[in-house]
Amino acid sequence: MDAQPRPAPPPPSPRSPPPGGPLGPDTGDVLQQIMAITDQSLEEAQARKHALNCHRMKPALFSVLCEIKEKTALSIRGVPEEGLPDARLTRLDNMLLAEGVSRPEKRGRGAAAAAGTATPGGCPNGNGLEHSDYRAKLSQIRQIYHSELEKYEQACHEFTTHVTNLLREQSRMRPVLPEEMERMVGVIHSKFSAIQMQLKQSTCEAVMTLRSRLLDARRKRRNFSKQATEVLNEYFYSHLSNPYPSEEVKQELARKGGITVSQVSNWFGNKRIRYKKNMGKFQEEASIYTASTVADTTKVWGPRSQASCPSTASSGSSGHFPLTSARDALITLRTLASPRPAPGGGSLWSQSRGSWQGTTPPVSTSPPAGYPSGANSHASH
DNA sequence: ATTTATGATTAGAA
DNA sequence: TTCTAATCATAAAT
């Protein structure tokens, strides 16, 4: 704390003249000088400080400085404290909080990483696949954000301590009011918070970009893989009488097809409505899938791991529910073969959900959809 | 370039 | 909440 009572070395000269000559020295020389000077000047400064401290006129000087300060203090005080970026900052804070950046990473990083193979039993929200990328990047952003924030905090603290020490030391030579130090600290903090706000802003920007990219990706439609369509159609035509897969079945189908549960739901929604709208268009497809499920066992059914969901694992293939399968196949065959699918044939259709297709199709354009002899009608295409 | 197929989104009903 | 029905927007086919 005290200036070290070190034997003051004879002050060589405040500044050695540039040795380069009349023309300016190059930067290397300047650098060298600076490097050389620092050591010396440190000691020199210490010595000077000590000398000044011990100067007999010091108290007088101090009081004079006090007087001067008294006069100027008023004008200093009038500085308007900036409270402007407060609203902006809180807005950014809220956004970051809402976006989950400020949140302390609630879940352990186990679920998202294992998105490739087996979906854990939890994860009721099936959007994991689409969101995994998003989540990973968000986590990255969050990590960077927090580390930077911490760095700033630390730097701010260090700098504040430094300045405080400096002021304390200076207070021996000149009057330093405690509130002045406070003000100084406040200034430093405001500066650093400005930097923090910049960080927050850019973080927000990154998150928004990421999010918009995700939305764009969602808007872009990618057709499902062959495998996915296969699995979905398989189930659909195997359960034509009641094509409403349960939640478990949906999960299973999603797993098999490499899509999400919501995608499975979407697909079944679309399929039902479109099938109903004109069945004729789908007869070919229906015959393909029903035939394949009944006869062709080598289609896609290679070594399938049926580890999970043992109960209702796609009864279509191995006739686990022979009754249902047979009936559905019959229905399909019948709609395929008969010139007319029994106008009053709702008895067969109305199974568990009370005749899905109950409402009469609203008169599709050309062939009234009730004539599913599709294969032939395609000739006039 | 136009049409069709298809995944996603939306409003509203049960 | 899920499901239907309509609709949007884009991929694929013509």
UniProtKB/TrEMBL annotation:
Keywords from the UniProt entry: DNA-binding, Homeobox, Nucleus, Transcription, Transcription regulation
Location of the PBC domain: 22-216
GO MF terms held by the record: DNA binding; DNA-binding transcription factor activity
DNA-binding region: 217-279
Cellular localization per UniProt: Nucleus
Compositional bias segments (type: Pro residues): 1-22
Species this chain originates from: Rousettus aegyptiacus
Gene3D superfamilies on file: Homeodomain-like
Homeobox domain span: 215-278
Claim: Ligase is one of the keywords in the record: no
CDD domains per the UniProt record, alphabetical: homeodomain
Stretches with biased composition (Low complexity): 110-126, 305-319
Family the UniProt entry places it in: Belongs to the TALE/PBX homeobox family.
Compositional bias (Polar residues): 348-367
Full protein name: PBX homeobox 4
Major subcellular location class: nucleus
Gene Ontology, cellular component aspect: nucleus
Region entry Disordered, spans: 1-27, 107-126, 301-320, 337-381
Record-linked InterPro entries: HD, Homeodomain-like_sf, KN_HD, PBX_PBC_dom, TALE_homeobox
